[in-house]
Amino acid sequence: MWGAPVKRSRRGGFDLRIPTAEREVLGAIPDMLRALLVDGDAADPALQRLYPKAFTDDEDASAEFHDITHDELLEQRLAAIDTRWSGPCDPTTSPRTRCSHGSPR
Q1: 20 to 30 A from 30, CA-CA: which of 39, 58, 62, 77?
Q2: In this predicted model, what pLDDT tens digit does every residue of 41-60 receive, in sequence order?
């Protein structure tokens, strides 16, 4: 029995206890998201949720807004994926991970 998956430590950080299957899912999500962002079909509802129309009543204005913002949003999202967990605070590599206020511990 694992107990609570997230528990506050006495030193102010957090202890994460994540079973192997869940760690594998967490580890796969960033690569799946990257593939969707880079190679996904614009008609995919998942991509449409990530890039919603700015103006529901003006298709031209919405398309212009998309043209202006899409590349920067994509760059920011890919950078965020690249900064995912690392070091001892990575819940995908160890069944028990200790983090202090979001930083490796």
Answers
A1: 62
A2: 999 999 999 999 999 999 99
